[in-house]
């Protein structure tokens, strides 16, 4: 799988730019705030239908413009495709010229693994960061997962609204059973997906982490949930009903899931060093890469946004040595010199992408 061309119109600081890519290694270098990450964002947007950094779609429209367009042309082992996204008063997504009705219809068209400086917060930050990591990975491979997750989250909003009505308007508690049954149904499906992929990550990450650390560290992932089965979650919802009414929101459920990483049986979040965090997130991303390969039979596109700043020389070398038969798109401040690699190098300056040369 690889992207051969990107067309940007009024996207971020790009007025009109056509970028042709190599199927191997593509390096975009330049000073900060020139537009390098915007290229990564455009690719991610066409893969997932949403940005990894913008809270509102309109943030991606160039200043003083009314709309923006992103087009990505890609090839897979069995077909070619084109994703087009128009952003204006609303967002429209097109696949091979056909307007999509649902986001789930886009997912899986272009598979990506993204590595950004903020990814350290997947492990250091709150549970929502780890849930988002799982959601992005699983939804690319199982679009029905995102469909069920959205139904669950919508039901949570409705249940929370009714909880506040019970508290403030003395409405009947019995009607909560309607939302509880829906939550339990969707939670069971979401849990099944997450459990399956946590197990796959665990299988992959052990070998990867051993290689990165020269067998000096043993890594383990433990999934934490209250929704292992319908009976348990139903019991929890009933037990916490009074508390939920007082607080005005649902305090337990699949929306509170988490996973914990242990290094040599010690919890990484509590006892891990900065280096161990970086090594663990690198291992996690490489495990994601391998899982996607196993699922679809070809490697996803690897997006490395300013990753050099987050990894020391040893970790950078290990990552780049693992790259074979994968399209990689790297942004960095300084030009990267690599031996025995096909490289396409671009200099990015003030929203302009200048192809420099190709090395062999």
Your description of this structure?
This protein is α/β, with parallel strands linked by helices. It is 42% helix and 24% strand. The chain is built from ten helices and 15 strands. A six-stranded antiparallel β-sheet has the order 2-1-4-5-6-7, covered by helices on one side. β5 and β6 (91-95) form a beta hairpin. The chain is globular, with a radius of gyration of 22 Å.
Notable traits:
single chain, about 350 residues, alpha/beta, 10 helices, about 40% helix, 6-stranded mixed sheet, 15 strands, 6-stranded antiparallel sheet
Explain the layout of strands and helices.
Layout: E1 2-11, E2 14-20, E3 25-29, H1 36-48, E4 68-75, E5 80-87, E6 91-95, E7 98-99, E8 112-115, H2 120-124, H3 127-141, H4 143-169, H5 176-212, E9 219-224, H6 230-239, H7 241-247, E10 258-263, E11 266-267, H8 268-271, H9 274-296, E12 301-305, H10 313-322, E13 328-332, E14 343-349, E15 352-359
Parallel strand pairs: 3-13, 3-14, 8-12, 12-13
Antiparallel strand pairs: 1-2, 1-4, 4-5, 5-6, 6-7, 9-10, 10-11, 14-15
Helix pairs in contact: 3-4, 4-5, 4-7, 5-6, 5-9
Write a concise synopsis of the structure shown.
With 360 residues, the chain is an alpha/beta fold. It contains ten helices and 15 strands. It is globular.
Form type: globular
What is the CA–CA distance across the termini?
21 Å
Helix content: 40-55%
Strand content: 15-25%
The succession of helices and strands, N to C, reads EEEHEEEEEHHHHEHHEEHHEHEEE
